Structure formats: structure tokens, C-alpha cells
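Troubleshooting log. The previous structure file for this entry was overwritten by mistake, so regenerating from the original sequence record. Sequence copied from the archived sheet and checked twice against the printout by T.R.
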Amino acid sequence: MTRDFSPSDPHAAPMSGHTPYQIERRVLAGVPCLIERPLEGTEIQTVCLVYHGAWAAKEGKLGVYSALTARGVAVVIPDAALHGERQGDTPPDHNAREYVWESVRRTVAEAPALIDALEDLLGPRPLWVVGSSMGGYVAQTLMQTEPRVARVAALITSGVWAEPEVGRPELQAFLEAYRPVTHADQTPPTPLLLASGEADPTFPLAAHHAPTAAAYRTAYAEAGTAHLLHEATFAGVGHYTSVRMRDQVLAFFLADSVFLADSEP
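Regenerated output below.
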């Protein structure tokens, strides 16, 4: 239940600008999620899935993209596999890189059921995905595996996927099947924003962003959809989602045709 409120003095609640929104916890298809959604009475136009990075949890992404709720977007933040409320599922014999990739593999595998559950809860809606760091691995893979994904932002991440410490056959098979620099042709015509920090010590620009962007640039050009690839780098930004990077993501998503009519005079 949502109580009526006065716009001049609204509830002391989560706010985006002057617009209040709701936060709720759900377990959808076995995945613990936080949902930031417009108040009741506001039609949900779109769903945005937000995937966090390694050794993080869904709570760390609360509020980052909540400005979307003012435009009728439900922001859904799941715990990635083996993270947050799901750490107890972690295999005891994986090294650090295998832990990351096992999380990615499981998170991608469970995404269709999670999306089904979101459609049952919110109704079929256009679906956006944004992922940072490890979440960017997930986001890039879902471009290849999940046809319901309409728009993707991959932040502070890489498509190189060179992993000498990953020795498990099932994880090597996953890397070979979806490595973006060798499978970029599987992603057009999905609009993509690839954004990186120019001072990122985890994914140095020349070694990660540059070859990833080049692979996507070739793939989108060959598909005749070069205008759907957006690239951005941010001076002085390390391995984190900066304010300007976040704002670029918001602008990228709100350029979706779902919202174009709203901006026409």
C-alpha cells in the first residue's frame, strides 16, 4: 500500500530529485533482488537489470540508477551467483578467478528464469541491462544469449577474457563460447554503451577497452549498425562507476525509443 503524499512535503523516503520511489526485496526464480520502482499509480515503462561486480552485493548498487524510476523504470538489482545472500553456494575448491567466472556462468544461466519471473511480476516490458566490472561480463554475455535484452551498458569491464588461472573445463568452455573480442558479431543490433575509466588499474585502457571497443566497432559496422555502438572513456576515473559515467548510462538508456515521444515538442 502507498499512502497519498503532498508534493510540497512528501514522505521522508528514497528520493530521486523530488520524486519518491519504492524499494522492495524479492526472491525471483531463487535470486534475491532489490527493486527500485515508481510509486503505485505510475506505469512501469521498462525494466533495468543492474549487475554488480565481484566480491560485492546488490545493496552496493542501491541509489545509483534510481533516477530512472522518475521515468517509469523499475530498477532490479540481483545478487550475482555466489555473492551477497548467496555466498554459501561458493564452491570450496575454486581459485579467485574461477570464483569470478563460476559466478558469471551461473548468473548468465539463471537470467532467463529471472526475466520470466520479472515479466510475471511487472508484465512484459522492454529490458535493459547494465553491469560493472564482473557485471559487465554478465551484461556482454546476455547480449549474445538473451533475445529479450533491448539495450546494454557495460562499464569498467573487458571483452578480452584472457584467464590463465582458470583451468576448469566448464569455465574454459564458457570463455571460449562467449568471449566478446571473438564473438562481437553476435551482439548487433542491440544498442551498446562501452564505458571505461582512463585510470583503471584493473582493466588498463590499452589492454582491455581498446581491443574490446575495436572488436565491437568492426562487428557493428559490418552489420550496418555502427550508430548503435556508443563508446566513452573518463579521464582520471579508476575502477569504479563515476558520476559522469553514471550520467552517461542514464542518457544512453533514456535515448531508447520508448522515451523519445516524451521528449518531442
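Strands lie at 15-16, 19-28, 31-38, 46-51, 73-78, 127-132, 149-155, 192-197, 229-234. Archived copy saved in two places this time.
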